[in-house]
Amino acid sequence: MINDDETRQLSGEHNILRAAKHIFSMGPKTLIVKRGEHGALMIHEKFMFSVPGFPLEEVHDPTGAGDSFAGGFMGYLAAAKSLNPATLKRAMVYGSVLGSFAVEKFGVERLLTLKRKEVEARAKKFAQLTAFEL
User: Fold this and answer.
1) What single-letter DSSP state applies at residue 29?
2) What is the value of pTM for the model shown?
C-alpha cells in the first residue's frame, strides 16, 4: 500500500498500471495505490477495484488521511473471516470511509470521538454513492 507518487518512483513508470506490473515483478500480488482526495486503486494480478474519496463539504486537515485509510483497510481485514476479492473490496470502502473522517478535524481529533455506528452509516452512504445498474 503506497501512494501514487511512491508507485511511480519505485517503478520508474508514470502510468499506474505499468507501474503495478513492474512492482508485481518484485513479488507482491496486490498493490493498493492511495490517490489522496481521488480515492484509492487496488490492482491485483486478476482484478482491479477503485474507490473514490468520500465527498465532503469541508476538509480541515488532510494530514493522516492516507494512514487512516490504511488503518481502516487493515482493521477490516483483521476482523474478516476470509480473504477474497469481495473482502478486499469492502476493506477498500472502509479505508476510504476512515480517511474521510480523519480530514474532518485537525490531527486525530475526529477519530478520537468516532463511533462504530458512524462508520457503518457512512459505509452505507458510500455504497449508495457508488452503486449503479447496467
Assistant:
1) S
2) 0.90
Backbone angles phi, psi at 43, to 5 degrees: -120, 120
Q: Which of 4, 5, 61, 67 is catalytic?
A: 67
Question: Is 67 one of the catalytic residues?
Answer: yes
How far apart, in Å, are the Cα atoms of 13 and each of 4, 9, 27, 37?
11, 7, 17, 22
Give the pLDDT confidence of 23-44 residue by residue, as tens digits: 999 999 999 999 988 999 999 9
Query: pLDDT tens digit string along 60-86?
Result: 988 889 999 999 999 999 999 899 999
Domain that holds residue 7: 2-130
Q: Is the dihedral of CA 14, 18, 21, 26 positive or negative?
A: negative
Q: Identify which of 125, 134, 133 has the alpha carbon closest to the alpha carbon of residue 52.
A: 125
Domain holding 62: CATH number?
A: 3.40.1190.20
Say how far apart CA 113 and CA 79 lie, in whole Å. 21
The answer to whether 16 touches 33, Cβ cutoff 8 Å, is yes
Q: In the 8-state DSSP scheme, what is residue 46? A: S
